[in-house]
Amino acid sequence: MVRVIIARPQRASTMAVTTERGQRFTLYSSPSQFEHVNVARFGSVETEGLKPIQRMIGPSASALSFSHTIASSDYRTSIEHLITPLVKLARDGARVRFVGGSAEFETNKWWWIKDLPVSVEQRAADNRISRARLSWSLEEAVTEPANLVRVIPKPAPVRKPAAPAARQHRVVPGDTLWDLAAKYLRSPYRWPEIFNLNKAIIRNPHWIFPGQVFKIPAR
Q1: pLDDT for the residue numbered 8
Q2: Which of 62, 106, 112, 182 lies deepest, with the highest CB count within 10 Å?
Q3: Residue 129 scores a pLDDT above 90
Q4: pTM of the full predicted structure?
Q5: How far apart are CA 107 and CA 171, in angstroms?
Q6: pLDDT, tens digit (0-9, with 9 covering 90-100), for 25-82
Q7: Residue 153 covered by a domain
Q8: Same domain, yes or no: 32 and 78
Q9: CATH of the domain at 65
């Protein structure tokens, strides 16, 4: 964090804020104190039996904060018409840049306004604001070209094939499990599969009765 304290007179040639559309709004008093942060991000890597290793895990976008006061010269007239356009920039999510400053971080970057509270310090005779303090909190507007941003699609869910539904057979005189296996399963030796699937009905595989309904395994 860099904290800059500057003894600067408040006069007409103060700093201003501009937008990408070319709009320009004066701050009416140059901030005497800035807080600028631009520190890389670090993380710890655990090592067995040793102290954790600190490594840089990525750069950090800059952050900037400052405050300034807007006041009428006689403290008896309203300044609300001067504050409103600045507050609107924050409400509209405008990307802004400051001009008229000295340091690179004051003038050479685009910023997003993250917060802009207004503190009323004095009111005029008609109860309108005659003196207020604006506190800016900004983050560097880092954007990527659209062609560099690749959206990774989610993999399609794997659908399991539905198990074939079991068939049914109503026993007629002369049926045997052996014959049913030969008919439906193409092998009489597979009769135990029919028996195991219908144990609730078949007590003895050698005795089946007309009218019983058996489930037949899928092939």
Answers
A1: 40
A2: 106
A3: yes
A4: 0.54
A5: 92
A6: 988 887 777 787 877 766 677 777 677 777 766 666 788 888 989 998 887 889 999 9
A7: no
A8: yes
A9: 2.40.30
**Residue span of the structural domain in which 88 resides:** 2-43+54-143
Shared domain for 127 and 200, answered yes or no, is: no
Contacts of 148 (CB under 8 A, 6+ apart): none
More confident residue, 89 or 152: 89
Other beta carbons within 10 angstroms of residue 130's beta carbon come to 23
Could you report the per-residue pLDDT of 103-114, keeping only the tens digit for each?
666 677 889 999
- 56-59 long-range contacts (CB < 8 A, ≥24 apart) are none
> Do 71 and 27 belong to one domain?
yes
| CB-based contact 35:1 (threshold 8 Å) | yes
DSSP output for 42-102: EEEE--TTSPPEEEEEE----EEEEEEEEE-SSSSS--HHHHHHHHHHHHTT-EEEEES-S
Nearest-angstrom CA–CA distance, 198 and 62: 74
